[in-house]
Amino acid sequence: MNVSVKKPVILKVDNISKHFGGVTALDRVSFEVAEGECHAIVGENGAGKTTLINILNGAIFPDSGYFEFLGEKFNGLDPLTSMQRGLSVIHQELALIEPLSVMENIFIGDLNGKFKGFIKSQKTLKNETEKILISLGCDIDPTDLIESLSTSKKQIVEIAKALVTSPKLILMDEPTSSLALGETRKLFEMINILKQRGISIIFVSHRLNEVKEISDRITVIRDGHYIGTVNTDETSVDQIIRMMVGREIKLYEKLQHEEVKKTAILEVAGLTKKPYFTDISFTVKSGEILAFYGLIGAGRTELAETIFGYIHRDRGVIKTHGRVCDIKSPKDAMRYGIGLLPEDRKIAGIIDSMSVRENLSIAVLPKLARFGIVKKSEENKIVDRFVKLLEIKTASVDDAITNLSGGNQQKVMIARLMAIDVDILIMDEPTQGVDVGVKAEIHKLLRELTKRSIAVIVISSDLPEVLSIADQIIVIRSGMLIGKIKSEEATEEKIMTMATIG
Amino acid sequence: MECKKRILSELFRKRANIGVGWGVLIAFVGECIALSVLSPYFLSSTNLFNVMKSFSYTGIISVGMTMLIVIGGLDLSVGSVLGLGGMVTAALMDRMHFHPFTSVIAGLLVGVFIGYVISLLVNKLKINSFIVTLAFLSVARGFTYLIAKGSNIFVRSEAVIFLGQGYLGKVPFPVVIMLSLVIVGTLFMHYTVIGRQIYAIGGNDRAARLAGIQSDNVRMLVFMTTSGLATFAGIISAGMLGSAEMTAGTGVELDVIAAVIIGGASLKGGKGTVVGSLIGAAIMGVLRNGFVLLGLSYEAQIISIGLVIILAVVVDSIKTGKAQR
């Protein structure tokens, strides 16, 4: 499936293999990147994308094979040389120093002024930073502190930082994973500017719709094997998924909505928390999936945490089953049958010093105790039941939670909430950072939940996901409820317009 | 077969919350064997009980400190609170002529109250517990001097003296108290809801709160327990010496924290066991005893204790490093 290119090749990866112990991370992977091209690399979690990136930026050496960059052959590079030769990497987790200013961050590797050992003058730093930022078409004040910037602006700073070394190739690892759609648009504009300057981009991502939109060619790897490279114009998302998983997964299949019982479980009226959101009202019925869509920073996560009692509301009424609830803490919310699956599993979900069992049972534990003493047999029973029910793949429930894959960790988090018998489940970005297969499984799980007449509220930045799973979609922009749409009437364009245009 | 496997895995799992790491255990046993070879007197029951009595304050306070370090906190004030607890109890008996029982309860309540105030500052004002308790190290010692009014206070109550000097059969009473508290603490950490919640909060506070745990309340309980145990140790110490001394407990906080860390707890929280901390205290106690028995200098002794602490932490970091890889 290799496609010939007219522009000169600047990076040629030739038969690179890497093994970790007995595990093959990469097996004879080859591809080429042309000048000014945006080349996407896609694959499921564990396909070997990270290993490939680490080899290119010099963090690890390949076992065999080589790569050719700007006509020079390398077995491997160290990070400094690779940067000096013109290869920059922007990592998934941004590597900026929060309490320093934009300009100090951009020049952190190159602060030396005329006198060696002394820092460049503030004026020089500011001028040079402005020059770079203007060339990227954006207007961030070089003296702003990083901690005061939004995620998308931080990313621009990261790109600007990469440009200081005048790279020929920039490697971006999951650059959109922390951005909402509107911010992704800005990033894509930036990538186009870089391409026009003849800089090549390697774009590693999970989000196939974005890959389809921005890339010129796509290379697919699966289980460390090179599967193929295709021209983006000549392929479809479905074909890429087929190449990635080696089987057919219908990801965005419309959920079969069964006859929904018409009882309202959760009613929220006039909920307000300054400065996050104002006057939000909505109703969820049992067995229904309601999706909140909005850009990151629109107040969705705060809304979820307020309903759940983690943030104290300014005003507003929350009713479950028609009764007014007095929710002051997550504990209260759980008593009223509300559960929250937090957005960032690593920060707010898993307790990584504990086992699968302890993570699963921690919320339900007080119910399994008499006089404060845990009844072990009850605990084992409930843990075993949910491990079977959700098909959580673990060698033993006593294994550390960190031994599980991201998708299985997410299932443990869902089980934690199901164990306390919630009938309203709020899920904040439930499929963020999980691969295609697990995503499909979680969607299936959502369907199962609604069959048990649980009401589900999903917060998601993934528009195709929202459209395929929700019965009702609520769009939020800058803390205001912009509109409610039935899923039958919703289209991507309609929702995007509501979410972005004021 | 299946059953056997289950029992084994249960035992293995329990070690996570009850037992101690193999490294610490081997170090401790090795230390004892070496000493018993070098000094025939070491294994005599009198000497063994004296050693245990010598680290009984550390052991008693370390029960609370273990919970506190597991939950992700730290208490530097326990040494001063120990001094204050003994002083308050002795002053009430000697100068105010209170009944010994009332005086002991009052002494304990002072500790519990200090723990309550510390936890308010930590929970409500979000001040790091290191800083808050560093301040209380000074505050509590100051109050001790204030109450003492310039002189140590004698303890004449039979009951309080028994706490420090009495025997249950051949076992010194402070040792009985220490061992009972270690057992209660271990059962508490392993079998109760709150025990499990302490591990959860130390592992990830935000996740624990989102799982419905009222972590501020649990943290308050742990601070109150730790300070309360510190005053209890102070009362025992006053009984043991026959007087409440103004400088009692100076530096004890470092011994207690060292015992907990040697025992396998992590200052990051989420990890540690009460039994481990007891072994940690014992390793230091036996080491001190060994230096005395072998007639080695005090200077060499305190340097060695420092080296043991570093060794324990290095071994632990190598182990966790491997586990992560």
What does the model show?
The complex is a heterodimer of chains A (502) and B (325). With 502 residues, chain A is α/β, with parallel strands linked by helices. Chain A has three domains: 1-86 and 167-248, 3-Layer(aba) Sandwich (Rossmann fold), CATH 3.40.50.300; 96-165, no CATH class; 286-313 and 327-500, 3-Layer(aba) Sandwich (Rossmann fold), CATH 3.40.50.300. Helices cover 32% and strands 26% of the residues of chain A. Chain A has 17 helices and 22 strands. In chain A, the strands form five sheets. Chain A has a six-stranded mixed sheet with strand order 6-7-8-3-9-10, with helices on both faces. Chain A has a six-stranded mixed sheet with strand order 16-19-20-13-21-22, with helices on both faces. A four-stranded antiparallel sheet of chain A has the order 2-1-4-5, with helices on one face. In chain A, a hairpin with a 2-residue loop joins strand 4 (64-69) and strand 5 (72-74). In chain A, helix 13 crosses helix 14 (406-419). The longest helix of chain A has 16 residues, at 181-196. The relative contact order of chain A is 0.11. Residues 1-5 of chain A have low confidence and may be disordered. By secondary structure, chain B is mostly helical. Chain B has a domain at 54-249. Chain B has 15 helices and four strands. Chain B has helices spanning 2-17, 22-38, 45-54, 56-70, 78-94, 100-124, 129-148, 158-165, 173-191, 193-203, 205-210, 215-241, 252-262, 274-293, 298-324; strands at residues 153-154, 167-168, 171-172, 243-244. In chain B, the strands form two sheets. Chain B has a two-stranded antiparallel sheet. Chain B has a two-stranded antiparallel ribbon with strand order 2-3. Chain B is globular. The chains are: A alpha/beta (502), B mainly alpha (325). Chain A binds chain B through residues 308, 310, 329-331, 333-334, 340, 342, 347-355, 358, 362-363, 365-366, 369, 372-374, 396, 398, 416, 420, and chain B through 9, 12-13, 16, 191-194, 196-197, 199-200, 202-204, 206-214, 269-271.
